[in-house]
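Q: For a teaching handout, I want to show students what a protein-ligand complex looks like in token form. Below are the inputs, and the small molecule is pyridoxal-5'-phosphate. Please produce the holo structure.
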Amino acid sequence: MNAVSNPAHVIDFAGIKREHAELADVLNARIAEVMASGQMLQGPGVVALEQSLALACGRAEAVCVGSGTDALYFALLSVGVGPGDEVIVPDISFIATAAAVARTGARPVFVDVDDACLLDLEAAGRAVTPRTKAVVMVQLFGAMSDPEALRAFGAAYGVAIIEDAAQAFGATHGEAAAGGVGLASALSFDPMKVLSAPGSGGAVLTDDASIAARVRRLRYHGREAGDYVEPGYNSQLSTLAAAVLSTKLERQTDWAARRARIAERYIHEFSDLPLERPSVSPHVRHVWHKFVLRAAERDRFMAHLKSVGVPTLAHYPRPFHREPMFGVAADGLFPNAVRHAGSTLSLPIHAHLTEVEVERIIAAVRGFFA
Ligand SMILES: Cc1ncc(COP(=O)(O)O)c(C=O)c1O
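A: Here is the structure, written as tokens, with pyridoxal-5'-phosphate included.
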């Protein structure tokens, strides 16, 4: 019995080891080239990756930085967000979305999400005040919001749209790509992401040359053309990480297609179960960074899956408005976020799940309701 067919074998939640095993020969050769070059930062591979990312997202410029969190923070600073401003943020996302806003000195204003866990634009409209400077639209779980509705929102209220596309590289809505929406977008290359680095990494994408120039200054001590013109940070993507990311970039289309087939399978196989399954607009190509279900008895369901070797995670079990960091607010304004947080669980989904493993996951889910 091998590890895959052995029911005692715990399925890998994210598949990073298998991603690296598939590409081992090419990765090792490219890593060796960078090591031999000696140029570990600011190497030509970083510039090449920036060009590929800009092209993939339909942007004029991409600037690689040290993490997705820094990408979001630098994007916010570069559109002028600072102390005294308010920035509208969905009440459910990874903590970095709201923390990056707080780091600028602005106040994150939490707004409820829709059934797909994306920012509810109607509720966002009600939250706009004269201090509102920007809205952060998070393309959560690999989905994508309607870029036209966002553009119209930004124009109607006179606020900047910043896209947190950390989880959605490769997603599209009609002709628009994630990473290509709003004044500036942030990508993350964290190891759990669909396009993942050997460590932290991120990028800001924009069509505005002055935003790109500011992010370039911020990522390296405020330097521009040899002068240090403002206090900045040291937030660079290593040349090694760029080499790994460029190699994985070549596999994104196939890997996303495999995840989409698994998601279709899950959606189909669970249609008769008392579970809320993700629904995807026909205009959207979802990249299935996460496959998120909602279940009434979530904790018992997760414990059952764990007991049969199927790991799950809850994305995200606590809405921002309940985090002590932000000063806890009443639940009443965020009914969808509260409902989601109390019932969400994510199943393993990655391109290197075998058919046998997918069958095991389906059987394990069905087994709970049998
Ligand atoms: C929605 C979202 N925003 C921002 C980030 C921050 O990215 P990083 O972990 O690369 O700093 C992440 C990922 O971790 C994320 O999922």
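A: Two things your students might notice: Residues 67-69, 72, 93-94, 96-97, 138, 164, 166-167, 188, 190, 200, 202 surround pyridoxal-5'-phosphate (CB under 6 Å). Residues 302 and 312 are 6 Å apart (CA to CA).
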